[in-house]
Design goal:
The complex is a heterodimer. Chain A is mainly β. Chain A is 9% helix and 33% strand. Chain A is globular, with a radius of gyration of 19 Å. Classes of the chains: A mainly beta, B alpha+beta. Strand 2 of chain A pairs antiparallel with strand 2 of chain B.
Chain lengths: 163, 137
């Protein structure tokens, strides 16, 4: 992740709240939000994850003019090495947020990524699992911390069988 | 509405159904809002034929976002200090999820510690975690 800016926009907050099924008017109605303790529209608790929209290097967004690994004419748009099959996938294992203050539309945050620890574990369902931690600090224009996010990703050596 | 210390005790519980019959469209809606377009979540052909899953499944962060609704409905807006947890099992189209918060500690600094559990229609845990929120005296 190179350095980039994450503009927090009212329409984006509204769409995010809809996507997580949250009808709370504090996410979409500025007049209502003005009457609340916070006093303005706020971002839902997991909203900063959508900074991915603004990350120029984010790999899970199709790029204009580049092959995408989802289906089109074929089940996948990219060639995989023989034997790699489809198994073995990266999944999100943990996510933790620390909120330093409420976040509202009109702010521009700068996320900075730090790699954390990595470790491996033998799993019953997914073969060898490799865990990797990352910490993203979201700072405002004054350089103050607004949200600290710590994620853990896991990569399995085969497709997770799970019901 | 914030929580009041005088009305709370360790063991107080708030529980809420956060989705019934999760649709593929809602998963796609979350992909569009969050920017995570991983075809494991949005592309049934890729998820089944290439990745070998029985169908697409929800982003872990959609499950956490649905759980967040229960949490802010309970503790109030702008009151969360921390919220985190683990994705314990996959969430599939058609699932019903119920999210639950239980108070485990009320601190001298007017904060509550909560244990968070989100289960599917079979009672299986899909997300477990903790949260801290500011309360009124």
């Amino acid at each position: 992740m190179s350095s980039y800016e994450f503009p927090v926009e009212a329409g984006h907050i509204m769409m995010f709240a809809r996507a997580v099924g949250d009808p709370n008017p504090i996410y979409s109605d500025a007049a209502y939000a003005a009457t609340t303790e916070v006093g303005h529209v706020v971002a839902p608790p997991t909203f900063v994850q959508s900074s991915a929209q603004f990350d120029p290097d984010y790999s899970l967004r199709p790029r204009i003019g580049q092959a995408w690994f989802g289906s089109g004419k074929e089940p996948t748009g990219v060639q995989r090495a023989p034997g790699s099959g489809g198994g073995g996938t990266g999944l999100h294992a943990e996510q933790h947020f620390e909120y330093h203050r409420p976040l509202g539309p009109g702010e521009v945050l700068t996320p900075t990524l730090r790699e954390g620890e990595t470790w491996t574990k033998e799993g019953r369902r997914g073969g060898t699992m490799t865990f990797a931690e990352n910490i993203v600090e979201y700072r405002d224009a004054a350089g103050e911390l607004v949200v600290t996010a710590r994620g853990v990703g896991v990569r399995t050596s085969k497709t997770v069988e799970n019901g | 509405m914030a929580l009041r210390r005088s009305e709370l005790e360790v063991g107080s519980v708030h529980e809420q159904v956060v989705v019934e019959n999760l649709t593929r469209t809602q998963i796609v809606q979350y992909a569009g809002a969050s920017g995570d377009y991983n075809p494991l979540h949005t592309d049934e052909v890729f998820a089944t034929k290439v990745a070998g899953y029985p169908s697409v499944f929800a982003h872990g962060m959609l499950t956490m976002g649905l759980t967040g609704r229960m949490l802010t409905d309970y503790v109030g807006d702008g009151r969360l200090v921390r919220f985190g947890g683990r994705f314990r099992a996959q969430v599939w189209p058609g699932d019903d999820l119920t999210a639950r918060a239980e108070i485990t500690e009320i601190t001298g600094e007017n904060e509550v510690e909560l244990v968070i559990t989100t289960v599917n229609q079979d009672g299986a845990e899909v997300f477990t975690g903790t949260a801290t929120a500011r309360i009124d005296p």
